[in-house]
Amino acid sequence: MAISLNPPERLIPVSGIRLATAAAGLRYKDRDDLVLMELSEPARTAALFTTNRFCAAPVVVARQHLAAVQPRYLLINAGNANAGLGAQGLADAQQCCAALARACGCQENEILPFSTGVIGERLPVEKITAHYTRLAQALGEDAWLAAAQAIMTTDTVCKGLSRQVELDGQTVTMTGIAKGAGMIRPDMATMLAFVATDLEADPEELEQLSRQAVRQSFHCITVDGDTSTNDACVLVATARSGARFSALSPQARADFSEALNSLYLSLAQAIVRDGEGITKFVCVRIEQARSEAEAREIAFSIAHSPLVKTSAFASDPNWGRIVAAAARTPHGGLEMDRLSLHINTVPVIENGQPAPGYTEAAGVRAMQGDELEYRLQLGLGTASARIWTTDLSHEYVKINAEYRT
Amino acid sequence: MAISLNPPERLIPVSGIRLATAAAGLRYKDRDDLVLMELSEPARTAALFTTNRFCAAPVVVARQHLAAVQPRYLLINAGNANAGLGAQGLADAQQCCAALARACGCQENEILPFSTGVIGERLPVEKITAHYTRLAQALGEDAWLAAAQAIMTTDTVCKGLSRQVELDGQTVTMTGIAKGAGMIRPDMATMLAFVATDLEADPEELEQLSRQAVRQSFHCITVDGDTSTNDACVLVATARSGARFSALSPQARADFSEALNSLYLSLAQAIVRDGEGITKFVCVRIEQARSEAEAREIAFSIAHSPLVKTSAFASDPNWGRIVAAAARTPHGGLEMDRLSLHINTVPVIENGQPAPGYTEAAGVRAMQGDELEYRLQLGLGTASARIWTTDLSHEYVKINAEYRT
């Protein structure tokens, strides 16, 4: 059950973007699993992809195409990752693009393909290409919600968000959709996220906005520590609002950046809130570290510990596991007698020892809700980091043991 | 259920070592949980401890004592780790040693304390010291099996092994006991292991024998990636056999080393075979790496992947998860088109693509047994590594969610 996560009621169209969905029957019955997204001239696109070297065929193809030319179409399927299939996988991804280029009258490399789903099963190309004519005819500005639903795999709630900001008197819209929900430890971005804005921005500006937004959002979440083969996060600027990033006032630029970052963070957190088998949404917050890298390393060590995660599942304030996970990182400098830990607002450890007045009962009460914060203060410096993660439940094991059956 | 692991029927006494056990009621009812081990002059001892900076009070005290003088007694309790208690924990460990020194007529620093169990609860010192007189009177050479049973926590099978080797015509005995079964990712050794031999060896020789044996055994196992706060591995040489290491022939030294290494490896594997919630005993074997460090990093990345572990639990030949886990390590050099994977003897991937003739049915058959080997050949060099681990089952979550309740 997703934690405090509702599907969006409506997503605001972004001028310059049209979408269509179809049910190709790749894996799921009675639902859409295919999305075509059209980006009209002069839209500019930035994208970040998985750092996993075992990256999927569509990631290889999308990287090549993006390096050559600005994309005009995004083609997204759910249910099959087209990963781990070598030359065959590449040929299948290219064939999907070539056929779409013919159907839409564009160049093959103006199409970016994205796939998410089971690894190692061949992509049923004909099931996809059969829908091209109908998809091209059905393109419309108001299909964001349908697209958010069509890209789901083990997600239980569809994820999308819109924001509008006033920038120097002009209204700029941004809308994004994303999907999880396992193999989530983005070393760049989660499985798939697509964000569009009607701002105008140069490719370099867009690249920088995208990296900055990803850094504090998708780079700060983990479900199971497994970086996916298909991660991709795409940011499109359609230039239709009349607002141009480079012409904005410093304040308006900051406002746009803040709105974009907050939209990315909400999407990233939505993926965690709907993480496989989740019963607790956990924020691991490290403060007083010597560097952000140290803070992040310690936070991830806690967030990935199966013992910390099962304690969270059991609502057990087993702080020994939290501190032990923090202290096993390669960083040599942790000083136990400077360490403090809060679970939500309850002080648990102070200067390396049980906090005065701390009782097990207080700890148990702090663990009851479905949102937890572990705040670890190292007493070593001024850097900090926050990482969002899930607990580890019976349901996680069940979902992942039965994924392919 | 432990995988192909039976308790030892008998452990061979090691001349110069006497043991006694008692039921102190620290956590468990109706079983022994306290061990006293006497090491007679001129026994020499080497010990390796956890690299976790949040190490338990007994580890701090044992390190100090061992640095000062050769130990005469080991005091081991199960059920309470005496970890995470700051100055109080240190005082409690010291008090246990001081009282035992009085009872046994030795110096306080001739005692090494060891604790294993729950973190963060105060050690009930009086419950322990109350048994000293009786323990000292009950010391005997034949209590190794009782000691192996007394140090168990979540272990379901007690772990011990004896070996005898002929070295230049003299019989040398070695007997070891160990316990697991969770928070196992030794960055030195697992929770607790105690090995004794009647060989005579200098402290430096012993240290080297111990490090070498640990390196290819306890350093090569993982259950959940969580390095414990209380890990300790102790090797005692009692010098009672008449065989002296430095006087042995090169062949006899090699024979001793091989027997010791094999004893350590069996104990380490026994801990994995009895890992919490285990249903599959998994060997991750990396070959053709550029360095052992690279091979180990990749092996651990696979061994720690919750997705790989849940696939093993489900007997699902989900090779995509194995390759994806291998490919997410920081090592930049993995080349997918050189990669081959076998599950047991079944070729699954060849040169980065599904092996000719591989069928899902063949993969499923290979996954049926309760012992699995994933053999990944990188095609990059000649280094290799083997890591032993468990699957991730419903039972693991249950055990660790309910550990303190």
List the helices and strands and how they pair.
Two copies of one chain form a homodimer.
Chain A: E1 17-22, E2 34-39, E3 44-49, H1 57-68, E4 73-80, H2 86-104, E5 111-118, H3 125-129, H4 132-138, H5 144-150, E6 159-167, E7 170-179, E8 192-197, H6 203-215, E9 221-222, E10 232-237, H7 250-273, E11 281-289, H8 292-304, H9 306-313, H10 319-327, E12 340-343, E13 346-350, E14 353-354, H11 360-366, E15 371-377, E16 383-390, H12 394-401
Q: What would you say this structure looks like, in words?
A:
2 copies of one chain form a homodimer. Chain A is an alpha+beta fold. Helix content of chain A is 33%, strand content 25%. The first copy, chain A, is built from 12 helices and 16 strands. Chain A has helices at 57-68, 86-104, 125-129, 132-138, 144-150, 203-215, 250-273, 292-304, 306-313, 319-327, 360-366, 394-401, and strands spanning 17-22, 34-39, 44-49, 73-80, 111-118, 159-167, 170-179, 192-197, 221-222, 232-237, 281-289, 340-343, 346-350, 353-354, 371-377, 383-390. In chain A, the strands form 3 sheets. Chain A has a 7-stranded mixed sheet with strand order 9-16-11-15-12-13-14, sandwiched between helices. In chain A, strand 6 and strand 7 (170-179) form a beta hairpin. In chain A, helix 1 crosses helix 2 and helix 6 packs across helix 7. The radius of gyration of chain A is 22 Å and the shape is globular. Chains A and B meet through helix 2, helix 9, helix 10, strand 14 and helix 12 of A and helix 2, helix 9, helix 10, strand 14 and helix 12 of B.
